[in-house]
Amino acid sequence: MQQPNSAPFGTFFGDSGRSMKRILQRDCNLVVWNRNFPEFLNWWISVLKWGNISELEFDLQIDQIDGFEVELRSIVDRWCTKSADFNTWFTSDVTELARQFISDTGAEKVLLRLCPLAQKSVDNVFSEAPLKLMCNYGGKGLQWSPILQGENLDENYINVQPLDILVLKGTNWPGRTLNCFGHRLNPDLKNEDGIVLEIEYLH
Predict the structure, then answer these.
(1) 3-state SS class at 113
(2) pLDDT band for position 103 (cuts 50, 70, 90)
(3) Domain boundaries, the chain
């Protein structure tokens, strides 16, 4: 996991699922959760033709997670017909991230989106959602900027490895006292297959 030489105030780096809750602290606006997985998962992610699928969106509440997992698995099985083990892992990973995000943040409803890289913009973004989780499956990973809103972002991005998690506090987080950080796709991702998971706190 790449970290700036001096982490800006408001950022937190962790290596366990407990890291996600840190975003709720008043002095934290961004969490980077480093996750380690077997290499074979990266291989399966790299060989799938993610660009051939359509973007998916789901409005979810905590009591809908189990039904969502069943629906997502049926979709993933149509995407990938060669590895039931990978399909099980991918479905479980997305589902558990959604479940944990809802549980840790206390959200009543979230918007979950899965979008192929080829259909995503690389633009600099300051999230308007109160809270947002992002994870890139495949490619070179996401990027975040330690430069604050209103400053020049373009040459100040930090890479996040594929499968690592970004959790950001957006401009509409109640009582936010810190400026927001920028995020974007790695510009090189436009030439690679992969899919981005986004989970946004609605209320």
Answers:
(1) strand
(2) very high
(3) 19-201
